[in-house]
Automatic annotation (TrEMBL):
Domain AB hydrolase-1: 123-360
Source taxon at top rank: Eukaryota
Active site: S203 (charge relay system), D330 (charge relay system), H359 (charge relay system)
InterPro entries assigned: AB_hydrolase_1, AB_hydrolase_4_sf, AB_hydrolase_fold, ABHD4
Organism of this sequence: Rhynchospora pubera
Start-end of Low complexity biased regions: 14-31
Family according to the record: Belongs to the AB hydrolase superfamily. AB hydrolase 4 family.
PANTHER family per record: ABHYDROLASE DOMAIN-CONTAINING PROTEIN (PTHR10794), ESTERASE_LIPASE_THIOESTERASE FAMILY PROTEIN (PTHR10794:SF84)
Descriptive protein name: Alpha/beta-Hydrolases superfamily protein
Chain positions covered by the region annotation Disordered: 1-39
Lineage: Eukaryota, Viridiplantae, Streptophyta, Embryophyta, Tracheophyta
Length: 420
């Protein structure tokens, strides 16, 4: 007799609890309003979210948060020191250029040799750098190396024009633009169908990642994610960007954007409409650049763009495990912009706020001052926890499937039942 294939489809769980890794009794919103029940030496950390109890198991959090002396007394000094003096791990990369549906292109940087050296079903980690950042940034390299040393396959998603990624159409990326990430995640998932996918994003990359998680709430191919230094509320971030020393960051980022734009200026030659080419080419602030180019993404104004592109609006729709780590004194991603109530109410989200750290700094821990950020061990433990829990669930499901197969096969030895 021909083999009979039966497909068993379990009832779909509540999206808000999908892929949750804690017992339901520990995940009620009412129990997620305080962090004083988390037994950690790092009492200076602010911890919110239903998943906070699992942090007590993390080795990386068993010692208090200790910023490096001298540097941590000023958030700007810590931010600038990390940007200029953090070590850059040497990693040989292999580039893949991915053509998008709108004829654009992004660059995916994989660790060279991993296609043969790492098991095909190893977990895959997608890294999303910050504004104008890429695979050459120190914080990206350190995270890449840590995950790679744990046996994970890692790929850096360089947005259009970043890290010498080609620009083939008169369109860059923005805080609101998640289409490229959708295509990258789908591409990686198709290439490694037996692997679980995870993602880590920094700054603007974190904003894009969280927006993607909310947008793809019911169809997300990721099994977990981490958001670092996320500006979350862009109107608040923009407001603080024009205060005091922050104007230096604003000018520096504007110059980086202008440099990126001028490199591909011929693509925009003769284009009118919503573009303001002179303003973008000579922008003295990120807001000027956004006003010159970003309005092409369909927004009425820069303020409309900032409001509707804020990932704080997406937190409530996140349906996979998400860890958010912020610094209380971050000059670019203000603490007052963190959507604390929404994080507390979503059982899939967890927030850690450190007292110092600056922006993409976190010069603390045993690797300070030149090594990896304090966050890296915490991020890796979180991801490994998710992956190991997922494997346990998979093994349990396979065990029960085998039992069911045995029952069916004993009923009629002439029929083979395949559970898919």
């Amino acid at each position: 007799m021909a083999n009979t294939h039966l497909r068993f489809t379990p009832a779909r769980p509540n999206p808000s609890l999908r892929r949750s890794l804690l017992p339901l009794s520990t995940m009620s919103p009412s129990s997620a309003t305080k962090s004083d029940d988390v037994d950690l030496p790092s009492s200076s950390l602010e911890i919110l979210g239903a998943r906070r109890s699992l942090l007590s198991r993390f080795v990386s959090l068993q010692t208090p948060y200790k910023p490096f002396p001298v540097l941590a007394w000023n958030r700007h000094i810590e931010t600038i020191f990390a940007s200029f003096y953090r070590s850059l791990p040497v990693v040989k990369l292999r580039r893949e250029c991915l053509r998008t549906k709108d004829d654009g292109a992004v660059a995916l940087d994989w660790v060279s040799g991993d296609e043969t050296q790492i098991p095909f079903d190893s977990p895959v980690l997608i890294l999303l750098p910050g504004l104008t950042g890429g695979s050459g940034d120190t914080y990206v390299r350190h995270m890449l190396l840590r995950a790679r040393n744990k046996g994970w396959r890692v790929v850096v998603f360089n947005s259009r024009g970043c890290a010498d990624s080609p620009v083939t159409t008169p369109k860059f990326y923005s805080a609101s633009f998640t289409d490229d990430l959708c295509e990258v995640a789908s591409h990686v998932s198709t290439r490694y169908p037996k692997s679980k996918l995870y993602a880590v994003g920094w700054s603007l990359g974190a904003n894009i990642l969280v927006r993607y998680l909310g947008q793809e709430s019911h169809n997300c191919v990721l099994s977990g994610a981490v958001s670092l230094c996320n500006p979350f509320n862009l109107p608040i971030a923009d407001e603080d960007f024009h205060k005091g020393f922050n104007n230096i960051y604003d000018l520096a980022l504007a110059r980086s954007l202008c440099k990126l734009f001028k490199k591909h200026a011929l693509l925009f030659e003769g284009i009118g409409g919503e573009y303001n080419i002179p303003m973008a080419a000579n922008a003295r602030s990120v807001r000027d650049f956004d006003e010159g180019l970003t309005l092409t993404f369909g927004f009425k104004s820069v303020d409309d763009y900032y409001y509707n592109s804020s990932s704080s609006r997406s937190i409530k729709d996140v349906s996979i495990p998400l860890l958010c780590i912020q610094a209380e004194n971050d000059p670019i991603a203000p603490s007052r912009g963190i959507p604390r109530p929404d994080i507390e109410e979503n059982p899939n989200c967890l927030l850690i706020v450190t007292p110092q750290g600056g922006h993409l700094g976190w010069v603390a821990g045993h690797a300070a001052p030149f090594g990896c950020p304090w966050t890296d061990p915490v991020v890796m433990e979180f991801l490994e926890h998710l992956h190991n829990q997922g494997d346990e669930k998979t093994r349990s499901a396979e065990y029960h499937s085998d039992e069911l197969c045995g029952i069916n096969q004993s009923s009629d030895s002439s029929i083979t039942v395949h559970i898919q």
